[in-house]
């Protein structure tokens, strides 16, 4: 044992050794050498509260689980996070406010974005359902300026939208999105604006119309794959393929997720927080990223032994965790940055249908 404080993480992460599985072809590893120091993608959940109950999301299930308590990230914790990210700001692909809740519900969220941008960090993205956007918040975000705002709509028509995004108000959200675009242009803000739709049966017939309509207004339209959130979401269709050879999960080389309470977890879809490795209270992101346990995660995935990790063993969502089609690629494209080099050595990434 090395005596590293993260030598013995949550024991529930691992299970008994199993026979390795085949691994897809690819140049898997850190895309850039400096990524060994610090993850290029930081996903931050400033709250676990949400004002919708979308049919494709784990939140409605988690909200009913024992022990759930809606809370907000302490602004002091956010400041600590910003101070560490600022040290590595030149090698970040994106800081993304998303994950377990609707960021706009945090009463200090806009303050947090302003704090992050004052530190010179970017690109900074907000993924939002846009229900809580108002004129003042839009103006402050655009003047910060936040780099990207990604509005999740998931349908072209009001009828479909309100079947998918329970408690969402189609007219309000689409009006907010159009006003955001209009105000961005009025202010001359450099913020890029995207919108997205999930490829799921309720909206399949609307994907092309959605792309054509919103393509007139926004800087980029995204079509995302449908995930099960590690089996939490009971979807009748998954669009997963049985004949794909599995690849290592890119999260171990690209990103970490920070919970509203400062917990650091390795999987963005870990709604039950079974993969929490440490907390910001006791460790830095850099310590976790360079720890023996993260090296073990990477080795297990590179050698096809992902089934020795409890969560990974029952994951099908890996098919939508693509090395060459991640969210960072959309950010690079919409920000006009040079393309990130490709990793996959086969056709599988192009064929798996990830959004």
Summarize the structure.
The chain is of the alpha/beta class and 355 residues long. Helix content is 30%, strand content 12%.
What this model shows, in words?
With 355 residues, the protein is of the alpha/beta class. 30% of the residues lie in helices and 12% in strands. It is built from 13 helices and 9 strands. It has a 9-stranded mixed sheet, sandwiched between helices.
Query: For the residues shown, what is the average pLDDT?
Result: 91
The end-to-end span amounts to 41 Å
Largest sheet, spatial ordering of strands? 6-5-4-3-2-1-7-8-9
Shape, per Cα inertia axes: globular
Query: Given the helix and strand composition, which structural class is it?
Result: alpha/beta
Order of helices and strands: EHHEHEHEHHEHEHEEEHHHHH
Low-pLDDT runs of 5+ residues are: 346-355
- Gyration radius over CA: 20 Å
Q: How many strands in all?
A: 9
Question: In this structure, how is the largest beta sheet organized?
Answer: 9 strands, mixed
Helical amount among residues, as a percent range? 25-40%
Task: Please state roughly what percent of the residues sit in beta strands, choosing from under 5%, 5-15%, 15-25%, 25-35%, 35-45% or over 45%.
Answer: 5-15%
User: How many distinct helices?
Assistant: 13
């Amino acid at each position: 044992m090395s005596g590293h404080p993260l030598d013995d993480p949550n024991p529930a992460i691992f299970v008994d050794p199993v026979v390795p599985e085949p691994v897809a072809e690819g140049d898997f590893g850190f895309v850039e050498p400096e990524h060994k120091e610090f993850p290029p993608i930081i996903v931050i959940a400033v709250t676990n509260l949400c004002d919708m109950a979308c049919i494709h999301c784990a939140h409605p299930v988690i909200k009913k689980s024992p022990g759930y308590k809606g809370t907000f990230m302490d602004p002091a914790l956010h400041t600590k996070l910003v101070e560490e990210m600022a040290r590595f700001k030149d090698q970040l692909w994106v800081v993304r406010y998303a994950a377990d809740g609707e960021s706009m519900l945090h009463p200090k969220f806009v303050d947090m974005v302003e704090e992050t941008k004052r530190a010179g960090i970017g690109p900074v993205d907000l993924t939002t359902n846009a229900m809580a956007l108002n004129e003042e918040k839009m103006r402050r975000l655009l003047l910060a300026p936040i780099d990207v705002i990604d509005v999740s709509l998931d349908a072209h028509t009001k009828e479909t939208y309100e079947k998918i995004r329970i408690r969402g108000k189609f007219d309000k959200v689409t009006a907010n999105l159009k006003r955001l675009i209009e105000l961005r242009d009025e202010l001359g803000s450099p913020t890029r604006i995207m919108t997205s739709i999930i490829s799921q049966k309720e909206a399949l017939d609307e994907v092309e119309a959605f792309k054509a309509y919103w393509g007139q207004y926004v800087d980029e339209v995204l079509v995302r794959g449908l995930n099960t959130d590690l089996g939490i979401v009971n979807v009748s269709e998954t669009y997963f393929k049985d004949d794909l050879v599995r690849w290592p999960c890119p999260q171990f080389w690209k990103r970490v997720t920070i919970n509203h309470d400062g917990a650091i977890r390795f999987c963005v879809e870990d709604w039950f927080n079974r993969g929490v490795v440490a907390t910001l209270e006791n460790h830095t992101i850099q310590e976790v990223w360079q720890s023996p346990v993260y090296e073990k995660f990477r080795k297990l995935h590179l050698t096809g032994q992902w089934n020795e990790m409890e969560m990974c063993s029952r994951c099908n969502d890996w098919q939508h965790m693509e090395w060459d089609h991640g969210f960072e690629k959309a950010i690079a494209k919409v920000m006009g940055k040079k393309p990130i080099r490709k990793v996959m050595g086969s056709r599988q990434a192009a064929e798996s249908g990830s959004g």
